[in-house]
Description:
Helix content is 40%, strand content 16%. By secondary structure, the chain is of the alpha/beta class. The chain has a single domain, classed as Aldolase class I (TIM Barrel). The model has no long low-confidence stretch (mean pLDDT 95). Bound molecules: ligand PBG. Ligand PBG binds at residues 118, 120, 122, 166, 202, 205-206, 218, 274-275.
Amino acid sequence: xxxxxTRMRRLRANQTLRQMVRETSLSVNDLIYPLFVIYGKDKRIxxxxxxGIYQLSVDRLVEExxxxxxxxxxxxxxxxxxxHKDNSGxxxxxxxxxxxxxxxxxxxxxxxxxxxTDVCMCEYTDHGHCGLLTEDGRVDNDATLELLARQALSxxxxxxxxxxxxxxxxxxxxxxxxxxxxxxxxQVPIMSYAxxxxxxxxxxxxxxxxxxxxxxxxxxxxxxxxxxREALREAQLDLDEGADIxxxxxxxxxxxxxxxxxxxxGCPTAAYSVSGEYAMFKAxxxxxxxxxxxxxxxxxxxxxxxxADMIITYWAKEAANLLNT
Length: 325
Ligand code: PBG
């Protein structure tokens, strides 16, 4: 008598069958590629801890944007590195600011590419915190809101498609929503970094965006890694204030949070596979300790399986190349 085999085992027997019964598949349409835009001309500066990632001046965006679009990646997420920083981050809302110029440049090169802008103060403040400081050095939540709204409005006026506030000040989604609506931009969606954890995984980004805090840390405004239910309360508040897409960040160590957000709200959900995740598998891959491609694709698939509709990843171009072949 032969042993019965499980049904799935029969269905795993060959490649075509495996594809037919696959529950989750990654698509190029799911990917968002982050770009770091730096002041100056003709700059393409490699980020040491993120091999393959560069800080680009606005005039050097052309080749990058064409490549991303050519690969079928539908969207980019912009971070700006300004020349001048001050204690209120005043270069963040200038019409001729770094992100605003980059938005216009990308839209002129490639109007179909969705341009998402990160809205935050930390790249623009000399102290590197995500908001204004009080005299005794604490982050002043309420005073920061108006500045974030100004920044978001200037991005929208420059022509971005989505604004993505990442500062974690309470109430910012509502203030941004009301501000841009009142200026005639009610159609522009908000992607909220709703569940953003105080994470060690942001290290390489802070080199890339030159945004490390000059003192202290971000634990008073970013979430404690132990708190999954708090993430749902944050997401609920942001949805109530008018967020259209809820983001969970980082992704790999927070797959349960992605799943919970998707199950609880059923809303469009984004996962941000952050700089430290990329740095880990790049470094191990370059050492020959792991097989980078397989592991990166497995991680991205896991994020989708958890419930992400879209994934922000520094590995988007490599993934698109593999998915397109
Ligand atoms: C804040 C911001 C951060 C990241 C995106 N937006 C860093 C932080 O909170 O320190 C991190 C992204 C990454 O690590 O890839 N503007």
